[in-house]
Design a protein that fits this description.
Peptidase_S24_S26A/B/C, DNA-directed DNA polymerase activity, mainly beta, Umud Fragment, subunit A, transferase, two-stranded antiparallel ribbon
């Protein structure tokens, strides 16, 4: 899986949209669920460390098992300490990849059965660039 970095200025905004008070059902609709709670700014909801957060586009299918698909936009936070089991954006020998961090076994794990774990060998140039906080998937392409 490869990643394309995106500058924050390309996607940052101060737009706050209305947010429903009740959760939206994915089954049968409920007529009582049409009350607005407040306005929700996605920057406020998804970004906790503004200066340490960046975005990147995903290319590939190796993380589909955790809901990250080709074309998704990842929100990555450099200020969050990466813990075992976190989805991270990592640099390994100069190549960026998005994988699950397996600290005890010193490896990066794909979330797709067709991709073997990547062992982080002694002497490898390895760095966690940030912890993936969220992914955004478009269901309808934006008009150009």
């Amino acid at each position: 899986m490869s990643v394309t970095l995106v500058s924050r200025s390309e996607v940052e905004s101060a737009f706050a949209a209305p947010c429903f008070l009740a959760r939206v059902r994915a089954g049968f609709p409920s007529p009582a669920d049409d009350y607005m709670d407040r306005r929700l700014d996605l920057n406020e909801y998804l970004i906790h460390h503004k200066e340490a957060t960046f975005y990147c586009w995903v290319q590939g299918e190796s993380m589909e098992g955790v809901g990250i698909f080709d074309g998704d936009l990842l929100i990555v936070d450099r200020a969050e300490d990466a813990r075992d089991g976190d989805v991270v954006l990592a640099s390994l020998n100069g190549e960026l990849t998005c994988k699950i961090l397996d600290i005890p076994r010193r490896r990066l794990i794909a979330a797709h059965q067709d991709y073997p774990p990547i062992v982080i060998s002694e002497g490898a140039c390895f760095e966690v660039e940030g912890t993936v906080i969220s992914s955004i998937r478009l269901f309808r392409a934006r008009p150009r």
